[in-house]
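Hi P.,

Sorry for the delay on this. The queue was packed all week, but I finally got your sequence through. Input first:
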Amino acid sequence: MAQIAKASKGTAKKEAYVKKQEEGGKKVLEWIFGVLVVLAILFVIYSIFIVA
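Then the structure:
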């Protein structure tokens, strides 16, 4: 019985770790896409001033 409890404790820790990593990864992706959008907007503004 002790081995079953030990295994389930390890599994719970692993699942919590995976969930934490997934949430962190989503935040990183949101930041990356946000920065890319801002850079694209700045490039459009820069291009407009160069052409004009």
